Amino acid sequence: MSELRDLLAADGGLVAGALGPDAADDSPSLAIAAVREGQRLHAGTPRLVTEAEPDLALLAGDRLYALGLERLAASGDLAAVAALAEVISRCAQALADGDIAGAEAAWEPLVRSQDGTVDLRGSDGA
Question: What is the model's pTM?
Fold first, then answer.
């Protein structure tokens, strides 16, 4: 998450002021790290933006979703955007059901293959 932390710190503002200590993350890219931290902010379990008040956490989560999806879209990898959108949808449903563990588990099928593409395990996105 160092790359994401560095980016947010360089941007300054309220989110930079709410950064906690750097945390390890196994996300394969900045884009995925951003969206995952956004989801965690919405769930109340952030690992990087740990000092945010609830309203700021919600807004920061939205900003990180947008940042991650924008980065993937700019790369032209529309399959990765679709895969990440599916994960976001699964996370949102789990959170709506009050299932924070389910929201974290929604990330498990997201993988980065050796050729650098991001996809969901299984051809149907399941």
Answer: 0.81
